[in-house]
Design a protein that fits this description.
Blueprint (H helix, E strand, L loop, with lengths): L15 H34 L13 H17 L6 H11 L7 H18 L7 E5 L6 E4 L3 E5 L7 H16 L2 H35 L3 H67 L10 H4 L6 H8 L1
Parallel strand pairs: 1-3
Antiparallel strand pairs: 2-3
Helix pairs in contact: 1-2, 1-6, 1-7, 4-5, 5-7, 6-7, 7-9
């Protein structure tokens, strides 16, 4: 066990579903580099290296181009691990998800449960942070490097089932699911921002064409909209495929987190918690395994998870 307050030893051990995300992570990184950073490096080369004769710069063989591309991509890639630190937990992930500190009443109830889970996991409880969300739903989630958050609605569960839920969320951290997902968000952010910008330009140009009185100007605006739509469609397809793969791996990760909680001695409690959640939220229709809702879901059906736990 780590010393009190020490978050350096969090018992993390990547498993198959986390490692399977690495090629997808690289693909997302490559999409952002190709569609965002290569054009940015080309522009920087033209503007900085030779502002008078832009035709002489900005080619792949130009050393300025390689330096600009390497500097931008290298800096962006090196900074990525900082999103998986305690600082990012406090200042990024907790704010992004609306996490807050526990009230005295919540602390008095949840601290003994938290202690029991971490004693069984042989990890010091100070290695992770327990936070609350004011969402009324019965849910919990793990984010960042070490934050476990309970939505307010889940406090309606019995204490023994809450321990299983905490063990499940701890499993996401221990198996490094949250770290890989955080990196996927970081590496995909430039491509998603560019896609949003391109989509805005496409619809803006189409609306502009409707306001233009001259037929030739309207055709020019529509042609520009078409040219901008081509990379937007490519980004949509590439990011969409990556998202579907991540969702598939997310569903596998839920089974791993369930098994981790069961390995701590909460198998029966985990089944009880999943049964209760199934009664509240239901399951997708079993005869529609390839529906968009199921393919886009981060969680497998409760029935499958209960069956996997035996």
């Amino acid at each position: 066990m780590s010393s009190p307050g020490d978050r350096s030893n969090q018992g993390k051990d990547a498993t198959a579903s986390a490692l399977a995300r690495v090629p997808v992570l690289f693909a997302i990184w490559l999409v952002s580099v190709t569609f965002v950073f290569v054009p940015l490096a080309w522009l920087a080369t033209n503007w900085i290296a030779d502002p008078v004769d832009s035709s002489a710069a900005g080619v792949a063989g130009d050393p300025f181009f390689a330096i600009a591309l390497g500097a931008v991509v290298g800096s962006w890639t090196i900074v990525a691990p900082l999103t998986m630190t305690g600082w990012a937990d406090r200042h990024v992930w907790m704010r992004r998800h609306g996490c807050r500190n526990l009230s005295p009443g919540e602390h008095s109830r949840l601290d003994p449960l938290w202690q029991d889970v971490f004693v069984r996991a042989r990890i010091h409880p100070d290695a992770y942070l327990l936070r609350m969300s004011d969402q009324p739903v019965q849910n919990a989630f793990a984010v960042g490097d070490g934050v476990i958050t309970l939505d307010r609605g889940i406090l309606e569960m019995d204490d023994v089932d809450l321990k299983a839920i905490i063990g499940h969320e701890l499993g996401h951290h221990v198996r490094r699911h949250t770290q890989i997902n955080g990196l996927a968000l970081w590496f995909g952010a430039p491509a998603r921002m560019l896609y949003g910008l391109l989509l805005f330009l496409v619809f803006g140009l189409i609306r502009l064409a409707g306001f233009l009185s001259g037929c030739s100007w309207a055709l020019i605006a529509l042609l520009l909209a078409f040219l901008v739509a081509v990379p937007a469609i490519a980004l949509f397809l590439l990011l969409g495929i990556a998202q579907l793969l991540i969702r598939l791996l997310d569903r596998r990760a839920e089974f791993e987190a369930d098994r981790y909680s069961a390995s701590l001695g909460y198998r029966t409690e985990m089944v009880n918690a999943l049964t209760e959640l199934r009664e509240i939220y239901g399951d997708p229709e079993p005869n529609k395994p390839w529906s968009p809702a199921r393919l886009g879901s981060t969680h497998p059906p409760f029935a499958d998870r209960i069956e996997a736990l035996g």
